[in-house]
Each structure stands twice: as C-alpha cells, then as structure tokens.
Design brief:
The chain is of the alpha+beta class and about 425 residues long. The protein contains 18 helices and eleven strands. A six-stranded mixed beta sheet has the order 1-2-3-9-6-4. Helix 10 packs antiparallel against helix 11. The longest helix is centred in the middle third of the chain and has 32 residues. The radius of gyration is 21 Å and the shape is globular. The N terminus is likely disordered. The structure holds progesterone. The site of progesterone has 13 residues, from helix 13.
Length: about 425
C-alpha cells in the first residue's frame, strides 16, 4: 500500500545549513522540494511550508499548535535540550508558546501597547536615538574610515527602542546584545547556550520583581498590573513575554534595516527614485520585508491531527516550520518576478513576513516605525553611503532561523 505522503517523506530532506553559506540557493532548493518540503534541522526532521497560500491557511488552523507536548520527537525523548535549536521552541510560557483562549489572555496587553496610534507617542524617542546613533556613525566613519553599519547603527537602535518600551536599564543593552548573538549562533556550544538562557532568565525575573515592587511607565509594568478584569499574568508569563519581546524586537529589526540598506545599495536606480521622493520609504520597507525576510524559518508548530497540504499530509505529532523567506519569493503570490527586488510593486505589497492569524507579529507596527525613521534619516545624513566591500562578500552569521549578516562595512563618503 502506498501512503499519500510517501513521496515527500522518502525524498531526501533539504538539509538546512547551520553555517548559512548560500541562503538563496537553499531557498530555491526548499521551494523546489514542494509546498511541504521535508527538511533536516541538525538531524531533526520537520516539514517546511514554502507557499504563501498554504501558510495563510495553516496559520489559522487550530490543529496546528505551539505546545511541544504535541511533538512526538519531544515526548519520545528523541529530541532533548542537547539539540541546538531547542531554545527556539522551549522558550517558557508566553504569548509565543501558547494557543487559544490562554493565548489571547497572554497577548492582549502587548498588542494594545503596540498599535500604530500608541506608537506615535514614542516616535520622538526613536528619532532622538536615531540622531544620536548617526552622530556615532559619523564619528566612527571620519576621514574615510570603514565602519560597520550593523554594530554602530542597525543593532543598537532596536535594542534601545525595545529596551525603553519594556523598561530595561540601558546599561544592560550591551550584555543583552552579546547574549543574543551567542544564543542565535550555531557555533556556540550547547551547554553555553543553555547557561546563558538561564542567566537571562535570572536577569528578566529580577527585572519583573523590581517592577512588581515599583511599577513604572513601561510595558513590563503594564503586563504585571491586572489585565482589564481578566486573570492577571503570572510572574512566569510576564518573564516569558518580556524575553520574547526583547529577543524579537531586537533581533528581527536589525535585519529589516540592514537588508533594506543592502537592497537599495545593490539597486542604485531604485535608491535614486526614493531619494528623489518618487517612491516612498514605506514601499522600500514593505518590499524589503517580502524579498529579504529577517526571519528565514519560524520554528515550530506541531500537528495534533493529520493535516492535508495539497496532495501531501503533515502527520499527527510532527513538526512544522514556516519558511518565510521562501514564502516571500512565492511566484504564485508575487508573480513570475518574485525573485526581483522592486519597490514599485503595486501597493499594498501583500507579503506575509509578519505571519498571519492569532500569532501575527505584535511588533509589526513598531518595526515599521523604526525602519521608517532609521532609513530616511540614514540616507539624508549620508546620501553617498556605500558598501566598503562587494555585496557578494557579505556573509551570514551561522544562524539557522534568522537572516543575520556578520557585519555591514560601509564608507560614509560624508
Ligand atoms: C528567543 C529565545 C527566547 O528567550 C524567547 C523567544 C521567544 C520569541 C522568539 C525568540 C525566542 C526568537 C526569535 C523570534 C521570537 C518571536 C519572533 C522572532 C522567533 C525563541 C522571529 O524571528 C520572528
């Protein structure tokens, strides 16, 4: 007897490269492996969703859950904390790891705090941080010196913004940046990663206890205070949400800002139209989100029943990854030129880079505000900004889930 998913199941999986040596080639291979691609994540098998339309359906399908208890490889003990990607899934109880009614309770305050309207209040802060970092950039790039746009600008900005929102002492920003860099890198030995996650838990728990004793005007305090007549969040839940916000708010926006700069520098004719005011920065941000997604693969959801995807089936108990980079390049959604960066695509740019359904990114508007301030300010200050090395020489860090550049050396040509 043949089973309907035998073909996909028996096909050699696409092995996701922990060193991220060829992201475009790998994206093509995953897409070519079909709408539901068998992938291998450091020896652990999973299914990758590679098409926009399928992801849109699956992300609202209640049979697909975040709870690891539904994952056979976990409950059987085949996957343990020795697996380097376990921290992407086993991240504590939070809005990132819970579904259904409980998820609505965990997420409500955060999504209310991050609406476009509420974010208008912090726009001046973001503008001030941006201006300060541009001064630092100018200083570092004085007299034709090569400067790393990542470490001097793209990385500190989102960290400052999310730190301010959550009430993190700015003194801790450097430590957090260092720890998350280690967390995401596949070169970090697993014992070290588990140790740093434990240290971060101590840091966040202390922060939550301090805010419980003395609430201030930040989202962490708001999460602690009883939620609109609903059950207040537990300390564990506040800690979980806080670390999800800091990790996500800081890591992903770095990618958005850098990838936009990279795409514009690689397409100077498009940059010219933006600088001439013919195309909006908003169009740049949306096209960058689609074409060069900050998140390559989002780990992981689990099937609580067999779920059909086209003529394939995700068997009950198995893990599903949403491959956002492949989805952003889906010609069925974006046309035959989906692989081309083109800021003149008709608006709205219907990409799915922030996800879809109940878990859709609560920080989407925040990242749009940040990039919408940072990019025009950067090019206004340094209109002749250019890469100090050929684009092909830019390397990704060994980070399997994020599109994370090692560095971004530029000349300011001020
Ligand atoms: C990192 C480790 C941690 O302590 C908590 C979380 C939860 C949120 C996760 C984050 C993780 C990794 C990056 C994610 C983020 C939510 C959005 C972000 C997956 C696992 C994206 O890359 C989209």
């Amino acid at each position: 007897m043949t089973c309907p998913y035998a073909a996909a199941r028996d096909a050699a999986p696409v092995v996701v490269d922990p060193m991220v040596r060829d992201l475009d080639g790998e994206t093509d291979r995953i897409r070519a492996a079909g709408p539901l691609a068998r992938i291998d994540l450091l020896g652990v098998p999973a299914w990758a969703v590679t098409r926009h339309a399928d992801a849109r359906r699956l992300l609202v399908d209640p049979r697909l859950v975040k709870d690891m208890a539904a994952w056979d490889l976990w409950t059987s003990g085949a996957v343990t904390h020795a697996w380097p990607l376990i921290g992407m899934i086993d991240a504590g109880r939070s809005m990132f790891t819970v579904d259904g009614e409980e998820h609505r309770r965990l997420r409500a305050k955060t999504s209310q705090a991050l609406t476009p309207r509420r974010l208008e209040a912090i726009r001046p802060d973001i503008e001030k941080f941006t201006a300060e970092l541009l001064d630092a950039l100018e200083e570092a790039g004085r007299d034709g010196a090569v400067v790393d746009l990542k470490s001097v600008f793209a990385q500190p900005l989102p960290m400052r913004v999310v730190g301010m929102l959550m009430g993190v002492d700015p003194q801790a920003n450097a430590m957090l940046t260092r720890q998350y860099k280690k967390f995401f890198s596949m070169l970090t030995p697993q014992e070290e990663r588990l140790a740093l996650l434990a240290e971060l838990d101590v840091f966040y728990t202390e922060l939550v206890r301090a805010k419980t004793a003395l609430p201030t005007d930040d989202l962490t305090s708001a999460l602690i205070l009883a939620a609109d007549g609903g059950e207040p969040l537990t300390e564990e839940e506040v800690v979980g949400n806080l670390k999800a916000m800091v990790a996500a708010g800081h890591e992903t926006t770095i990618g958005l800002v850098l990838n936009a700069v990279r795409a514009l520098l690689a397409h100077p004719e498009q940059l010219r139209t933006v600088l001439a005011g013919e195309v909006s920065w908003e169009a740049v941000v949306e096209e960058t989100l689609r074409w060069d997604t900050p998140t390559t693969h989002l780990l992981m959801r689990f099937a609580t029943e067999d779920i059909e995807v086209g003529d394939a089936v995700i068997p009950k108990g198995e893990g599903v990854v949403i491959s956002y980079r492949a989805i952003g390049r889906d010609p069925e959604q974006h046309g035959p030129d989906a692989d081309a960066f083109d800021i003149t695509r008709p608006a709205p740019n219907r990409h799915m880079t922030f996800g879809h359904g109940p878990h859709i990114c609560p920080g989407a508007a925040l990242s749009r505000v940040e990039a919408g301030i940072a990019l025009p300010a950067l090019f206004a200050r340094f209109p002749r900004l250019r890469l100090a090395v050929p684009d092909e020489e830019l390397r990704n860090l060994p980070v399997m889930t994020q599109n994370d550049l090692e560095s971004f050396p530029v000349l300011l040509d001020a």
